[in-house]
Amino acid sequence: TYSESMEDCSSYSVWQKMLEDVKMAKLELSTWVSDRPDYFTTGYKVVEYKNDTVSEWIPIFNSTSDLVGPFSSEDIPILSLNFTEHKPADKYLYEAVKANLYNGNGTRLGYTNFIFYARNSSDEVQLTGYKRYYFDGPWRGNPSCSQFISLDYLSGFDFEMVTDVSSPSMFEFTTPEGETYSESMEDCS
Predict the structure, then answer these.
(1) How many Cα atoms are found within 13 Å in the side-chain-facing hemisphere of 96?
(2) For labelling, which of 102, 136, 153, 186 has a CA lying 20 to 30 Å from the CA of 166?
(3) CA distance 134 to 144
(4) Is 166 exposed, middle or buried (0-12, 13-18, 19+ CB in 10 A)?
(5) Which of helix, strand or coil describes residue 153?
(6) What's the pTM?
(7) What does the pLDDT look like over 139-189, one tens digit per residue?
(8) Which stretch of DSSP H or E encloses residue 14?
(9) Are 157 and 85 in contact (CB under 8 A)?
(10) In this predicted structure, what is the pLDDT of residue 107?
């Protein structure tokens, strides 16, 4: 297991404080490629409590999941995506995964944003991206966190992704072989 955390990012303590106000969440996908379903499809599931297990993936047809909540700040759900590759990237592909976080009144307080870039180089798919979080609403103005990364451990859009906004290792990936990798913000500027 390879792990990177967001704990050392200078704004992470503010992020933790903001999470105390979070009561609802929504997962959102966006892409620049109109024929994305030819390359991969996605489904999501929500683990309401850290010890729960959910076995069914719900297909995402219109780019967003259902709003999840209300919940307490101690039990913010884990949002999972299952990417199923249909054919390897033979052109430049872009995919953004965003977890929007809301208070009890529906005001967005912040969001995570993980952006994937896929390209074919020498008949091999290369994935890179950005891992980020931002503040919004009454928390706007606090410093955000963003870092470019190479996703060498992923060979295409066939993996599971977990977004756990209350964990220092917010983004976790599991390959079809069962290997798990997490992303860190240790040297985030």
Answers:
(1) 13
(2) 153
(3) 5
(4) middle
(5) coil
(6) 0.82
(7) 999 988 888 999 999 988 889 998 888 888 889 999 999 999 998 755 554
(8) helix 12-19
(9) yes
(10) 94
